[in-house]
């Protein structure tokens, strides 16, 4: 056979060396094609390997049902404080701050860590998320000035996290809300608050400032995630977009329950969420009552969960049932997203969602222990 | 210049393909597993030993490729100075190299990805270690198939024995 092969090669005028060279070239081409094909998925996965391992390690330290049962069984919030001292993430803040503030600091640190470790293609979203602490501090400053709190009382309200914290600390010295706004000139929040100033002067309530800050935050978040280019950014966009939908729905439901009209609601709306687009938002804002809003959501995920809550709302006339249903929807939705891309953005969304849920539930339990003498089963029902 | 028979030269290409592609898969796999492990160790020092175990698993593909490459070099006469191989056996040797090379590439990468995920699962929940090892070991089978076929090709293709 070897002779036949040599004869064939010779008849084509191919020498042994040329035959070898051809085989080497063919193998190189096959090798190059294989390497290109197999390296593409690796390139998608690679940036997420380190952040995901870090995030999953932190996820393993989150409280499970057993922890929450033990916390709920505590006699008072002081016992909860002592319980949390057993967990380094919380213990490091509890010596210097109140329990609620320690929780806020821990959440702010979580946003900050995620903004540092997130891969480049999704980093912008997490950098904006980390500004939640700044927004919270500005809201606290404005509320403190409105309530004429002392400097010490105002300082106690601030969370020592976020790039704007030093500025906020200086603004404690300001005497009026106008001075606070002037002090924020040059930051992204200066113009946002100035725009809301006239509405504040008309109404005498600080709600327009809070609403404007929330709108600015969510709009930035949405725009940072609005050009999905791959599975990871698509999943992140659906998560952020759903949060925008829920924020819009909460405002619309609250406004309709208070009998507000389209024009009053429209200024607070954020366009182009995930499932509720602009035309749908307009329809919802023009609805006559809460029942019409729920019916108008037919065809979206929100219809079923809000429709189930409608009966309780009709009995109690309290919109908190809708807000709880929407909060639970976001938690469950984020949980489902976290399983969609386990080698991509999934674990990061999963951790963020679970950490926010943990802090929210801890605050609910602490408030219940501090202010009410509620049964454990009642507290359990209040949890997200 | 050393005279090398065409069959032996083809076997040398086979040896290169065997360790080249198997090593590529193993290297990528270990890199992926190591990146996951280092993140886990950064958060939890106790993860070092388990991270090393998961990172070492995708090493086997390179070992298979290395073994096959050594066998090809020895039995083709390139190492040890034996007789050169005929052209047909040389062509079989390329098949041998491709068999373990490509199987090792896929297996190594797959194992690396599974290892990185398992490290994440273990750092989240210690009880996941044994199950993580089992899942990570599964992509080893493709490399074993490639290794077996490479040995069979060498035995029945006139390279071994």
Structure commentary:
- The complex is a heterodimer of chains A (384) and B (161).
- Helix content of chain A is 76%, strand content 0%.
- By secondary structure, chain A is mostly helical.
- Chain A has one domain (2-7, 14-382).
- In chain A, helix 12 runs antiparallel to helix 13.
- The longest helix of chain A has 44 residues, at 16-59.
- By secondary structure, chain B is an all-alpha fold.
- Chain B has one domain (6-156): lithium bound rotor ring of v- atpase (Four Helix Bundle (Hemerythrin (Met), subunit A)).
- Chain B contains 6 helices and no strands.
- The two termini of chain B are 29 Å apart.
- The model of chain B has no long low-confidence stretch (mean pLDDT 92).
What is the secondary structure topology, with strand pairs?
The complex is a heterodimer of chains A (about 375) and B (about 160).
Chain A: H1 2-11, H2 16-59, H3 65-72, H4 77-84, H5 88-94, H6 99-117, H7 120-129, H8 132-146, H9 151-157, H10 165-171, H11 177-183, H12 188-203, H13 207-224, H14 231-257, H15 262-266, H16 278-285, H17 290-296, H18 301-316, H19 320-340, H20 346-371, H21 376-382
Helix pairs in contact in A: 2-20, 5-6, 6-7, 6-20, 7-13, 8-13, 11-12, 12-13, 13-14, 14-19, 17-18, 18-19, 19-20
Chain B: H1 6-43, H2 48-56, H3 60-75, H4 87-124, H5 129-137, H6 140-156
Task: List the main descriptive attributes of the protein structure presented here.
heterodimer; A: 384 residues; mainly alpha; 21 helices; elongated; B: 161 residues; Four Helix Bundle (Hemerythrin (Met), subunit A); 6 helices
What's the order of the H and E elements of chain A? HHHHHHHHHHHHHHHHHHHHH
Q: What is the number of helical segments of chain A per DSSP (H or I, 4+ residues)?
A: 21
Give me the Rg of chain A, rounded: 28 Å
Q: Outline the low-pLDDT stretches of chain A.
A: none
Oligomeric status: heterodimer
- Any guess at the CATH architecture of chain B? Up-down Bundle
In what range is the share of β-strand residues of chain A? Answer: under 5%
For this structure, the CATH topology of chain B is Four Helix Bundle (Hemerythrin (Met), subunit A)
* Strand count of chain B: 0
Please work out how many helical segments of chain B DSSP would assign: 6
Q: What's the overall geometry of chain B?
A: elongated
The H-level CATH homologous superfamily of chain B, spelled out, is: lithium bound rotor ring of v- atpase
Parts with pLDDT < 50 across at least 5 consecutive residues of chain B: none
Series of H and E elements of chain B: HHHHHH
Mean pLDDT of chain A: 89
Q: What number of domains of chain B?
A: 1
Beta-strand percentage range of chain B: under 5%
CATH class of chain B: Mainly Alpha
Separation of termini of chain A? 76 Å
């Amino acid at each position: 056979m070897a002779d036949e092969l040599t004869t064939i090669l010779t008849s084509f005028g191919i020498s042994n060396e040329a035959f070898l060279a051809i085989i080497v070239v063919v193998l190189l081409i096959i090798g190059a094609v294989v390497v290109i094909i197999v390296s593409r998925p690796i390139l998608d996965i690679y940036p997420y390997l380190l952040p995901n391992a870090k995030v999953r390690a932190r996820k393993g330290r989150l409280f499970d049902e057993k922890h929450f049962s033990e916390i709920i069984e505590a006699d008072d919030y002081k016992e909860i404080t002592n319980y949390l001292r057993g967990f380094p993430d919380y213990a490091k803040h509890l010596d210097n701050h109140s329990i609620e503030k320690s929780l806020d600091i821990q959440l702010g640190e979580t946003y900050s860590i995620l903004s540092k470790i997130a891969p480049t293609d999704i980093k912008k979203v997490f950098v904006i998320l980390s500004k939640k602490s700044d927004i919270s501090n500005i809201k606290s400053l404005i509320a403190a000035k409105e309530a004429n709190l002392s400097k010490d009382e105002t300082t106690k309200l601030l969370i020592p996290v976020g790039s704007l914290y030093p500025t906020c600390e200086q603004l404690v010295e300001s005497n009026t809300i106008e001075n606070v706004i002037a002090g924020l000139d040059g930051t992204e929040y200066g113009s946002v608050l100035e725009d809301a100033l006239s509405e504040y002067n008309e109404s005498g309530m600080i709600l327009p400032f809070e609403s404007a800050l929330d709108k600015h935050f969510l709009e930035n978040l949405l725009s940072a995630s609005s050009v999905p280019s791959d599975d990871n950014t698509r999943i992140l966009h659906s998560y952020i977009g759903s949060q925008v939908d829920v924020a819009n729905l909460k405002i619309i439901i609250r406004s309709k329950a208070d009998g507000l009209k389209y024009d009053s609601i429209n200024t607070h709306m954020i366009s182009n969420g995930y499932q509720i687009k602009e035309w749908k938002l307009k329809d919802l804002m023009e609805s006559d009552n809460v029942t019409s809003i729920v019916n108008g959501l037919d065809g979206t995920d929100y219809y079923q969960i809000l429709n189930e809550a409608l009966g309780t709302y009709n009995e109690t006339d309290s919109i908190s049932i809708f807000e709880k249903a929407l909060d639970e929807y976001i938690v469950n939705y984020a949980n489902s997203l976290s399983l969609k891309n386990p080698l991509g953005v999934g674990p990061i969304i999963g951790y963020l969602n679970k950490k926010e849920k943990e802090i929210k539930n801890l605050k609910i339990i602490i408030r219940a222990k501090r202010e009410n003498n509620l049964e454990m089963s009642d507290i359990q029902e209040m949890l997200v | 210049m050393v005279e090398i028979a065409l069959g032996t030269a083809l076997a040398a290409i086979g040896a290169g393909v065997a360790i080249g592609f198997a090593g590529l898969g193993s290297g990528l796999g270990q890199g992926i597993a190591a990146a996951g492990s280092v993140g886990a160790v950064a958060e939890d020092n106790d993860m070092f030993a388990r991270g090393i175990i998961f990172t070492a698993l995708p090493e086997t593909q390179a070992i298979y490729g290395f073994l096959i490459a050594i066998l090809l070099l020895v039995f083709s006469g390139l190492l040890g100075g034996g007789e050169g191989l005929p052209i047909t056996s040389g062509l079989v040797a390329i098949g041998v190299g491709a068999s373990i090379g490509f199987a090792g590439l896929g297996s190594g990468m797959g194992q690396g990805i599974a290892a990185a995920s398992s490290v994440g699962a273990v750092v989240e929940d210690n009880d996941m270690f044994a199950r993580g090892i089992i899942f990570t070991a599964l992509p080893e089978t493709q490399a074993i198939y490639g290794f077996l076929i490479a040995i069979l090709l060498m035995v029945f293709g006139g390279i071994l024995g």
